[in-house]
Amino acid sequence: MRTEGIPAIFLTTHNWGKSAKFFQALGFTLEFETDHHSGQLRSGDGTPPLIAEVPPTERPDMQVVLAFPDEASFVPRPGIEVASPFEDAHWGTRETTVRDPDGRLWRLQAPGKPKA
Hints:
Elements: E1 8-13, H1 16-25, E2 29-33, E3 38-42, E4 49-53, E5 62-67, E6 81-88, E7 93-99, E8 105-111
Parallel strand pairs: 1-4, 5-8
Antiparallel strand pairs: 1-5, 2-3, 3-4, 6-7, 7-8
Protein name: Glyoxalase
Region (Disordered): 86-116
InterPro entries: Glyas_Bleomycin-R_OHBP_Dase
């Protein structure tokens, strides 16, 4: 089992517009924005932050996304607690979360299944 790196850092916020402006003030440029209060920014060749707005009832959070070449290449070994199974994400990938020994959640991403 081997990852293909970190394709994104996933952040949630209570205000997409303010968060985007914060990162732009740090020198990031807006790569894309969606119609549901989310988007991705980029600065050079670094890992881009992907930011999504959540309701006030949810606590803003941050997760590092680890990429796998495909879903089958992730085989949970002893010591890896799967917190949620692979599911389709609305942006076209398949994702699962695992919990590390300190209780942090890590988002694992694999390419989506081809549409028939």
